[in-house]
User: Which sequence fits this backbone?
């Protein structure tokens, strides 16, 4: 039924629901979108109108500098009787428009004349807001860690400049890439310059759209060559510098014919070992191979090591360091 004045039956049902809401949400149930003063007197004087709208705070955190997320429930005069559903409105939330629209539609789909919507809607919204709060808090923590990381590294870099080294700082800490220091006397010396071969980008099957791998290969016969080549890639190739991982391995004979070899997974645990095994099993010598990977958002599992080794092998063949057979 639709009437302009609340009937006795409507008043009774709403009074019962409002009492339940007040008992359940206490101070989180508000008379308006603007909360009353926190003083006890004002709290007791604030009354919730039976006619609505009703306001339920959905959390304790002000997200993105906005007010506390709040659910507004606008009541048709026939509520809780009749087929006309109350109107839910969510305030003070920066939510993906599609997700927000789907949530509001879900609330309306939950409407049943036999059920009071207040607590039912409030708890469903609180579930969604709690996810946003956790995500927001995590992002803030990551941002703070990055800020602290950069502040510390800037101080370290200032010290490094006094010691004549150049420091590469990864663009983010989330992929566990290490900080790398390169002696300026090496990377600025033309006699250590190398010619680096780059393979075409490889997009692994069943990977994310942005997933790519590229191998970089060059001849090396001393550690100065290795340092120069790595610095050249990290400091002078912006795309490589922003790669999710730049794993590498090298293998060469030193002046005394001693075999010098090592590897680094650059945060992609196990990948450096795979590259080192490839160099050893293929008999490649006097070579540095670097594989840059740009993560595309789709986990590849153990298959990623096969693709990393495959891209590296392509580079070694193209550079003439191993036989392509």
Assistant:
């Amino acid at each position: 039924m639709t009437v302009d004045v609340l009937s006795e039956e409507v008043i009774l049902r709403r009074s019962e629901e409002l009492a339940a809401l007040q008992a359940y949400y206490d101070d989180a149930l508000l008379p308006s979108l603007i909360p009353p003063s926190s003083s006890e007197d004002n709290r007791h004087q604030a009354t919730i109108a039976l006619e609505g709208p009703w306001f339920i705070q959905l959390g304790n955190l002000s997200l993105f500098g906005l007010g506390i997320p709040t659910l507004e429930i606008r009541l048709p005069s026939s509520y809780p009787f009749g087929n006309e559903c109350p109107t839910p409105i969510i305030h003070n939330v920066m939510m993906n428009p599609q997700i927000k629209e789907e949530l509001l539609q879900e609330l309306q789909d939950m409407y049943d004349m036999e059920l009071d919507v207040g607590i039912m809607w409030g708890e469903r919204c609180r579930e969604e807001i709690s996810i946003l709060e956790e995500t927001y808090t995590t992002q803030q923590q990551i941002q703070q860690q990055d800020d602290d990381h950069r502040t510390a590294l800037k101080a370290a870099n200032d010290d490094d400049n006094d010691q004549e080294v150049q420091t590469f700082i990864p663009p983010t800490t989330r992929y566990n890439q290490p900080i790398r220091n390169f002696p300026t006397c090496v990377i600025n010396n033309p006699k250590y310059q190398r010619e680096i071969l780059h393979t075409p980008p490889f997009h692994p099957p069943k990977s994310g759209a942005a997933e790519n791998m590229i191998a970089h290969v060059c001849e090396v016969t001393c550690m100065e060559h290795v340092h120069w080549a790595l610095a050249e890639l990290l400091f002078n190739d912006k795309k490589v510098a922003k790669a999710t991982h730049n794993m590498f391995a090298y293998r060469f004979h030193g002046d005394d014919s001693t075999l010098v070899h090592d590897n680094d997974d650059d945060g992609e645990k196990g990948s450096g070992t795979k590259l080192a095994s490839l160099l050893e099993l293929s008999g490649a010598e006097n070579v540095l191979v670097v594989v840059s990977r740009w993560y595309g958002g789709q986990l590849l599992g153990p298959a990623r090591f096969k693709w990393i080794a495959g891209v590296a092998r392509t580079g070694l063949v193209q550079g003439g360091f191993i036989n392509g057979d």
Confidence is low (pLDDT under 50) at residues 40-45. The radius of gyration is 31 Å.
